[in-house]
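Before drawing any conclusions, I needed to go through one protein's amino acid sequence and its backbone structure tokens, quoted below without any editing.
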Amino acid sequence: MTEQTIGSKFRLGVSASPDWRIAVDGCLLQLLPLQPGANVGFVYVTEALSRHMPAIMRRLAEATGLPHLVAAISHSIIGGAREYVDEPAVACMVGAVPADSAMLFDRPNKIPAGGWFGIVHADPHVTALDELLMDMGELSGAYLVGGLVAAREARAQWASGLVEGGVSGILFTQGQPIVTGLSQGCSQVGPVHTVTSADNNMVLELDGMPAYAALQDAFDVKTLRDLRRAGGGMMVALPVGGSDRPDYLVRNIMGVDPQAGALAVGALMEEGDQLFFCRRDSESAGRDMDRMLADLRRRCGDATPRGGIYFSCMARSQDQFVQNPGELDRIQAAFPGLPLIGMYCGGEIAAARMYGYTGVLSLFL
């Protein structure tokens, strides 16, 4: 495979139809004949066609002959600058990567040690998924990005064959350069606190004061009624160390107990942990998206990305980027003509950690 072949842009095919055969053939009309050296393909299928996933993938595999095909079902998928929601659609992106630089895996223990970059699809119902992802990254040395499949019923994946109820994806060696960025969807409210008393996911005290009182101070609310009126955008964030920029994991506030002064959050907490309050905010989400894209442009240098995969939280599309420019418009403005594919998720993966309300963009150079 020549350097010129490797440098060619990925090719994108997107088609919407209630008949899976028409949808697949519509994609193939845009993909065939494949560019020389094409050997990888990424496929996303909306939930409306989920029961046809095996037939869709067999048809794509037979028509393209690609040795590395991965796929996932999602309620909403991305094809170019458009999101496909609640309609039967198939999106497929194919491209060329250096020979022997890609490897499929259909279960967590199939990842060998090495400096891999992994694109991962995961079923959110996998037991202790956050710990499993961290173990996968630590044991293999892989940098994992991806998303949790968001679907009402079937959450099928594909990696050489059908994968149900697990974790699967594709790994790349350093022979295929990939740059990736993470965009947060929340803004910090108040200072960072230290947990001084906790019980499982119940935060009892922050900095020696009742956790509920700290919440009231942060959001300037006096009563439980005021708290309810303030809306559902209140979250907690857990700072992540070892990053080259401020990083944090957003978790939901599951409930409050004013009498006990406690908060229930979507994570196990221990004494000595740190957290801060944050709010899901459209303006700050847009600013951080632009920051991420500018940083990716800088890191790409003189190279033009050949293709991109984007995993975004469903809440960002529904709540934070409902006005123009949307997420996909911003990506296309930063990287004009970029072949882009992906899905909206029930949780996003970056650096083998589970995030929420974020966007994760990976670019093939």
